[in-house]
Amino acid sequence: MLDNATTWWTFFKISINERLIYRADFMLGTLMRFLPTLTQIFLWWAIYDVISTPGGTGTSAGPDGEIAGYKYGDMVAYYLMVIISRAFSSMPGLTRGIANQIRNGEVKKFLIQPVDMQGCLLMQRIAHKLVYYLIATLPFALVFYMCGDFFIDGWPSADVLVVFFASLVFSFLLGFYLESCIGLIGFWFLEVTSLTFIYMLMNFLLSGHMFPLDLLPGAIRSIVDFLPFKYLAYFPAAVFLGKVEGAEMYYGLAVEIAWVFFFIVLSRVLWWRGIKRYAGFGG
Amino acid sequence: MSFRMNFVLQCFSSMSWAAMNWGLFKIIYRHTGEIGRGTGWHEDEFFIFLGTIWIINSLIQTFFMANAEEFSELIRTGNLDFALLKPIDTQFLISFPRINWAQVPNGLLGVALIIYSMINLHMDPNKDLYFAWFSIPAYLFFIGCGAIVMYSVMICLASTSIWFGRNQNLYNFWFYITNFYRYPMEIYQRGGNIGMALWCTFTFVIPILVVSNIPARILAQPLGTPWQSWEWQLAGFAIIASAWSLWASRWVFRKALLSYRSASS
Question: Distance (Å) from the C-alpha of residue B241 to the closest C-alpha of chain A?
Fold first, then answer.
């Protein structure tokens, strides 16, 4: 057990160092991430400007009027919060990494060494994410400070914050295991690039990254609510902004945790079935 | 055509991206009649704008995107040497060798969306859409100008890989910059100081806003006909801007080539 822990700790340290090489690039990249939000701010302004009452009670936070329960400030705040959710749940390169390892035979090393592939990848991801938060805090703080006015309702209460943080942590795990599963499909199809791309697109829409899911027409909304994607972006943001409250909020968190377990089990099953039919191409 | 499945999936994904975009604005127009008060970007007019964006995007992605990525790779591997040795203009050589057919359906979808919206506008008794024989050639001409501007931006971005050794973020940069040209320029003009700064930057410095707005205005005529005088001025500017950006891209490209130091071997 102790041996195991040191192994994981070593993996963790290596990944941290690996990640610290490109600091400046990282910070720049983080700021760039907010550029699309900038256009969203203007786009939604133009939209809310039309539906607001002429000469009405537009505040410093923008014009009045509501779309699906979102005031102008809420809408912008939502896009900002989604960036935070995505900072936890997005797993750039994970799917492709796993699929590539399967295709070029690198996955063999996990069959020989007494190290679990997913555990190893998970350690890497945690390290990468921690470094990311460390470096990204500064640009994030800057942007959120400048955009403070958009958060009309101010800080949520303590219990909401707790659920918010929990939902972020689980969205990290959900993102990790969900994308692992897609990567592990590589055991069956050698080329998963297009599949990854389609997943990315679906995720963009269904997770609420593109726009708040509350905007969707009722029938589609109820289908999307059944899917795991909304916990990757929409749910934490909605919790923070008070769009999901009380019992519904705790219920949502429970469902999110259930999805995490579902994908943990699924990824184990895929892994065991996958290595059974694995042929070990490459050198 | 050797990876048929991949081709189909690529077409499918780029078309579903378009469909998602369309869906978003379909939803937005359930709540509002116009984007930007008094701008005239009602639903049908805006979908002409959106279709125009798809056409320009599809042109860029069909003809230039893969080549720009290839260019980045040539620099990293040092294979650009061979391109430089050939007795033909290097910028021309690296710009056009490959065509990515999978991005064509997207453009066709744009054409379909425009035709559909134009018919809608014609049926609308409240709208007086002016459509003359020269609308189509003028539209195509300004689409061409647009493609030239976007091509120039991409060449400039790709040239930076000579200085950075490798530009892995080419696609990201591209996405972030083009993000600004996907909406009518009015949304920036009315957005206070920051909005005006953005509008000026993307109209006069990196003229990507005119490339989408001018052709779209030719067909959609959000402010009715005849055009306002500033629309004419902007159209004239678009022509100058595309010539200027093509020249600028050549300048950046040559400047970058001077710093090229080959690699490996």
Answer: 23
Q: Which residue has the higher pLDDT, A155 or B129?
A: A155
- Average pLDDT over chain B reads 81
d(CA B141, CA A116): 59
Give the amino acid at B200.
Answer: C
ipTM of model: 0.83
Hey, is A70 helix, strand or coil? strand
Mean pLDDT confidence for B63-74: 78
- Cβ proximity of B85 and B252 under 8 Å: no
Please state the domain extents for chain A: 2-51+70-276
- Please give the Cα distance from A41 to A78 (Å, whole number): 11
pTM of the model: 0.84
User: What is residue A67's three-state secondary structure?
Assistant: strand
Angle at Cα A119 formed by Cα A115 and Cα A122, nearest 5°?
Answer: 140
Could you tell me which residues of chain A have a Cβ less than 8 Å from any Cβ in chain B?
A: 29, 32, 35-36, 38-39, 41-43, 45-47, 49-51, 67-68, 191, 193-195, 197-198, 201, 204-205, 210-211, 215-217
Q: Given an 8 Å threshold on Cβ–Cβ distance, is A49 in contact with B37?
A: yes
Q: Is B9 helix (H, G, I), strand (E, B) or coil?
A: helix
Q: A39 and B179 in contact by Cβ < 8 A?
A: yes
Residue A62 in 3-state DSSP?
A: strand
Q: Which of A37, A48, A50, A74 to mutate to test the interface with B (most CBs of B within 10 A)?
A: A50
Q: Residue B20 and residue A210: Cβ atoms within 8 Å?
A: yes
CB A238 within 8 A of CB A168: no
- Which percentage of chain B shows pLDDT scores above 90? 9
pLDDT at A201 over 50: yes
Question: For residue A249, what are the CA distances in angstroms to A196, A238, A260, B262?
Answer: 30, 9, 17, 58
Chain A residue closest in CA terms to B190: A46
pLDDT by residue (tens digit) across B146-204?
Answer: 889 988 988 888 887 777 655 556 667 777 877 888 888 888 887 678 888 888 888 88
Cβ separation of A216 and B27 shorter than 8 Å?
Answer: yes
Using the beta-carbon criterion (under 8 Å), do A205 and B180 form an inter-chain contact?
no
On whether the CB atoms of residues B145 and B242 are closer than 8 A, the answer is yes
Query: Higher pLDDT residue, A193 or B119?
Result: B119
Nearest by Cα to B20 from A171, A262, A209: A209
Mutual orientation of helices B4-31 and A35-51 as an angle, nearest 10°?
A: 40
pLDDT on residue B225: 67
Q: Please, are residues A203 and A209 in contact by the beta-carbon 8 Å criterion?
A: yes
Alpha-carbon distance B196 to nearest alpha carbon in chain A (angstroms): 11
Contact present, B60 and B152 (Cβ < 8 Å): no
